[in-house]
Design the sequence.
């Protein structure tokens, strides 16, 4: 190699600090802005929420920041809702394998969410309290949105272009036929409340206990076939962004998903949340705790803004403006639809723990070399761990002696949830 060629190569080298700075600038340009608003009206004091904007996948690394938004709608008291708000996030993060890159971390989230929900339920029930709660838990990591839910608090996505989709499934026995079949197959009874003369009133409930929901956290007095295993959906937005509306049933009993989305379009997140609550109260009144969180995922260049409502002072101009907006909105909707506004990455709603925890053997070992329970994360000797697939007709593994593993206590809970042993609940 000539000395001139060597000098040219050295001149083309870029200092490491400059490379890192360039990567950070590119990353910042690609990262959306997340803004939120919250509003609530209380009737029973059983709705609780969590908003945390500064979570980090890698402690101390600001580029690994993600956001959490959650609503917990308690019943039979607020103890379960408060406990879940304070502990669920830590249990989810505790179930995540260490040392993962961002893409691997995103892929591991669904299983960690299941483990975190089940651990939270198990721990709360050990306290001997009988209250319960719904849980709708949303993680926003750049353009990826992951939602886990039990109960009937809902999360919807209003994508740019006006397409409204649900990221949750309601676990109300009245509406969910599959859940009714699962509960009865596991040993519960489903029916309406009987009053004097044998007349049946109200929504379908599970007996014992009389709960209207088929999934929740807590509720130790209604049978373990009321499970804490969440429905999980994970989507990736396009760089057009979108709006999430997370709310308790005080909103959804009054408004459809489309009505809620439409009522606050064109408003910033903070005002949007207040408007959704105001619209629900106008429609139905304050019959239940009513809580709403609005989350806007905004492109970094703000190139696509929510449509602004037309001014009211000129009726003819407003009509023309509305027609023009409708036409351009339809074109934008078709264009975005064509390129795929929302990419679905994951969706699973099975209540069977073996199906939800998968077959990944490698993540069932702790850094100490011992096996760990995939739910409660305690260390197990190899002889103590029971495969989540052992003896399960639902197993997708051809090697049920492999992991993930459960401790004996978590295995007992799994069997009770699936109706394989009598529930420990005693009903007087």
Sequence:
């Amino acid at each position: 190699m000539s000395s001139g060629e060597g000098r040219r190569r050295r001149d083309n080298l870029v200092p490491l600090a400059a490379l890192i700075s360039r990567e950070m600038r590119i990353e910042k340009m690609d990262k959306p802005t997340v803004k939120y608003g919250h509003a609530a009206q209380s009737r029973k004091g059983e709705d609780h929420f969590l908003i945390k904007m500064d979570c980090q996948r890698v402690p101390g690394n600001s580029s690994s920041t993600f956001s959490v938004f959650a609503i917990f709608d308690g019943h039979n008291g607020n103890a379960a809702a408060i406990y879940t708000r304070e502990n669920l996030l830590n249990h989810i993060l505790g179930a995540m394998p260490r040392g993962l890159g961002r893409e691997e971390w995103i892929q591991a989230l669904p299983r960690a969410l299941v483990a975190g929900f089940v651990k939270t339920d198990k721990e709360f029930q050990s306290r001997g309290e009988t209250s319960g709660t719904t849980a709708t838990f949303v993680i926003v990591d750049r353009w990826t949105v992951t939602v886990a839910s039990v109960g009937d608090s809902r999360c919807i996505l209003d994508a740019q272009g006006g397409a409204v989709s649900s990221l949750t499934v309601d676990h109300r026995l009245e509406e969910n036929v599959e859940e009714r079949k699962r509960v009865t197959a596991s040993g519960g009874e489903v029916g309406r409340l009987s009053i004097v003369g044998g007349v049946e009133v109200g929504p379908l409930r599970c007996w014992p206990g009389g709960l209207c929901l088929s999934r929740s956290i807590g509720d130790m007095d209604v049978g373990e076939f009321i499970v804490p295993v969440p429905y999980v959906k994970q989507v990736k937005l396009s760089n057009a962004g979108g709006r999430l509306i997370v709310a308790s049933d005080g909103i959804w009993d009054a408004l459809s998903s489309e009505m809620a989305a439409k009522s606050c379009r064109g408003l910033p997140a903070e005002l949007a949340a207040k408007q959704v609550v105001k619209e629900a109260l106008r429609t139905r009144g304050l019959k239940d705790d009513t809580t709403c969180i609005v989350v806007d995922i905004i492109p970094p260049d703000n190139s696509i803004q929510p449509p602004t409502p037309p001014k009211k002072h000129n009726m003819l101009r407003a009509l023309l403006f509305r027609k023009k907006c409708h036409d351009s909105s339809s074109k934008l909707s078709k264009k975005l639809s064509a390129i795929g506004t929302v990419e679905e990455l994951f969706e699973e709603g099975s209540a069977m723990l073996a199906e939800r925890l998968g077959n990944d053997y490698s993540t069932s070992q702790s850094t100490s070399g011992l096996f760990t329970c995939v739910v409660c994360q305690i260390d197990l000797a190899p002889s103590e761990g029971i495969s989540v697939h052992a003896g399960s007709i639902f197993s997708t593994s051809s090697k049920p002696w492999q992991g993930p593993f459960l401790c004996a206590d978590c295995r007992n809970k799994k069997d009770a949830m699936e109706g394989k042993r009598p529930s420990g609940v005693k009903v007087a």
